[in-house]
Design a protein that fits this description.
By secondary structure, this protein is α/β, with parallel strands linked by helices. The protein is about 30% helix and about 20% strand. It contains six helices and nine strands. The strands form two sheets. Strands 5-4-1-6-8-7-9 form a seven-stranded mixed β-sheet, sandwiched between helices. Strand 7 and strand 8 form a beta hairpin. Helix 2 runs antiparallel to helix 4. The radius of gyration is 15 Å and the shape is globular. The mean pLDDT is about 90.
Amino acid sequence: MKKNELPNITGIILAGGKSLRMGEEKGFVNHKNRPFISHILDAITLITDQIIICTNKSEYEEFGYPCIPDEIPNCGPIGGIYTGLLHSKTELNFILSCDIPFITTSLLKNILKQHSENFDITHYTNNPLIGIYNNSITQSFLKSMEDKQLKLLTLLSNINVQELPVTKEVTPLLKNINTPQEYKKAIGWN
């Protein structure tokens, strides 16, 4: 799929976490002499120019994309996803966490190819922070926050989700890095 053959989609990068276990801002941890977020941007910009970074940290402004703080603070990934969907101008949206430096354009295109309009979300099994989310579910995220139900997997259990099987080949590409130890282990795979 070439860029002009791809559907209109927004890339939403979640960079609002506290990064306590990492000890530094996860999106700025270096991998191959570049911050994690640069690798994610490399992968998604080959699919879309419409990118939003959901963060309250001004450091992310250096990448040249809109940086939007959570509309409703302290709601974890649900709050970040809600904010991204609210500010998106497209029906389809790639949700990507800022701690996935091994992600590739081909993996994102594979998710896109397998996404069906019969589903509200398509993601790999056990990895909902790398997936396609339809804008039509924005209100489900708002209701979840209003009800103080902030567990993403609980919310997703009430939404029409397509889970893609995780193969041995894609496992290393999906790895999200939460600690320095996880990073050291992960670079052994890549």
